[in-house]
Amino acid sequence: MSVNRITGFSGFDSESLIQKMMTAERAPLNKLKFKKQKMVWQQDMYREINTSFKSLHGMADSLKNSPTWNMFKTVSSDESSVSVSGTTASGTHKVEVLQLASTAKLEAKKELSGDTPDIGSLTPGSHSIVVDLGGVSKQVTIDVENGDDPTKVKDKLQAAFDKTFGQGNISVSADASNKLKFQTTNGAALTLKPFGSDDLIDKLGFSNPANRSTGLDPLATVGSLTGDSSNPVTFTITGKNGSKEFTIDPSDSLETVMAKVNAEGAATGVRMNYDAVAKKFTFTSMYAGAEGKVELTAGNNPADPGNKFLEGLGFSAANRGAYGTDTIAVIDGTSVSSTNNSITKDGITYDVKKVTNGTPVTIKTEHDVDALVKQITDFVNKYNEAIEGFSSKLREKVNRKILPMSDEDRKNIKEADLKLWEAEAKKGLLRNDDILSKALGDMRMITYSGVKGVRADGKDAYLSSIGITTASFTGENGEVIKSKAAMDGMLTIDEKKLRKALEENPEQVINIFTSYPTNADKSLPKEEYEAKKGLMHRFKDFFWEIQKEVSARIDNTGKINDSSLEKQIRDMNNRMEDMEVKLLRKEDQYYRRFAQMEKVMSQGSAQSSWIAAQLGKM
Predict the structure, then answer these.
(1) SS3 for 488-500, per residue?
(2) In-domain check, residue 426
(3) Which residue has the higher pLDDT, 413 or 104?
(4) For the chain, which has fewer Cβ within 10 Å, the N-terminal or C-terminal residue?
């Protein structure tokens, strides 16, 4: 609808007057817009509330089957002997370790063996050699006196080695012909070197550089160990999988020998390795425990090239066999064994570390009370946080001083002022809300209700029995206090009482939260069936249903008896559209009337001018 809006002939500001009149006419429309805006804000608030309910539902759903309920901790009377992991039940166990598992491993044991010493030609005084033990070189000094014999010098060397490298790391011995022998006790490589021009190393019988080191070079040839560069070397390795004879060319390097041995690992079940730090070779079974073994054999004649080769590697006739062992333990009177030092029995894994020598280790397994207290406390805190948020919405008062704001007002106001206006306008939109009020009441009822089938005496089990209650209106001295927490139904925890309950009867406490009816209970009346559900199951069901109720309040389009906010907003939009049409008609009416008035006033002005002109002619 439109009219010709021509104003101003009379000099009267009809445009401004009409706009002022329309501002008054639009007041009801602005109120409707404000009411609609409040409904939109309410929808947003309900969505936020549903997010909280969804979070609580997820937490309850997770907690009803949380692994923390079945988390155990163990205390060993001797952690250095036996520790435990993977426990699935509480109890006390006795463990006696008779033998540890080991893998069959042959380690080279080389010694430095010198020629006949010439002690008598040493000049009295201080003499030194350089000794390298496992890559650490140090000067070793002895004082030689007149009359010192080989035995005396041997003892002085032993004392000097003990002082320089620590007692027991290097052993000095002598054979019947007084030839000195040096051997490490920790398997580290040992090398002797001359100290400057001091001739002690030669006088001790180690003038030949080839005899000064236990370490082996993996690039050295087989012939260099046997002293025979012509004849091949033959030896046999026997392991769990069988025996294999090896024939090696004297020109092959020790590294090549190792590669050939390892290529037949599947046939023997044995691997050959080189320790670059100790500079020695080892033969190790590929199988753990008693089923693993390593045996080295060569010809019957000690002078056989095979025997010389094994001797040169550090495997004397007395050091050519190694056999693995199983762990053997007695657990609660039952003998058990394992190929490694870990034994699993009745869902518990025992890690054994040393033989107990007839003294059993006591293993006590119990629920992890600290973890359970934390889990329960975390839920209560989350619950209270939600309660506080819901209650604040219910108590929040409406700011009745806030007036509707027109679209024109919104354009002309500062953004900061607009935000402040919106914040005040949103206050109290959920005051005394029926859904929230009912939700808080139902949540409180769940925490008050007992759980059937949990206690041994058949009585209901309550949160209050384990130290979880609603906040009190009574102070420490019995006085009545104003408590917002009590009014809202927040929960409090007596941690001492909760811990005691968990320590004395953990299963009962856990079942208060997690129990669920059995298939046999399905025939029970609904009320009795529900009473057997633990609190987490009840909360899960409740938070699921309340989400649906809140969602229906937001938008229930397509459902019978739709009274949702979305339906009310649609109805409001229709009313506002009708009102907009009526306002346009009203505005056009005003313009028509003022246009008519302008026309009448214009005609009156013309008549006045004619009369005045006629009178002037008289």
Answers:
(1) HCCEEECHHHHHH
(2) yes
(3) 104
(4) C
Residues 147 and 189 reside in one and the same domain: yes
Using CA atoms, how far apart are residues 89 and 96, in angstroms rounded to an integer? 20
Q: If we measure between CA atoms, which residue out of 555, 545, 587 comes closest to residue 57?
A: 545
Neighbours of 241 (CB within 10 A): 16
Question: How far from 589 is each of 5, 16, 17, 20, 28, CA to CA, in Å?
Answer: 11, 15, 13, 14, 19
- In this structure, what CATH number is given to the domain that contains residue 270? 3.30.70
Residues 520 and 400 in one domain: yes
Spatial CA neighbour of 67 closest among 510, 519, 463: 510
CA 187/CA 184 separation, integer angstroms: 6
pLDDT in tens, 524-570: 999 999 999 999 999 999 999 999 999 988 887 666 667 788 888 88
User: Three-state DSSP class for 221?
Assistant: strand
Of 18-27, 51-60, 397-406, which one has max mean pLDDT?
A: 51-60
Q: pTM for the complete prediction?
A: 0.61
> Of 188, 211, 234, which one is at a domain's C-terminal end?
211
| Residues 121, 52 within the same domain | no
* DSSP summary character for residue 403: P
Last residue of a domain, one of 554, 584, 600: 554
Q: Is 524 left (phi over 0), alpha (psi -120 to 50) or beta?
A: beta
Domain that holds residue 126: 106-211
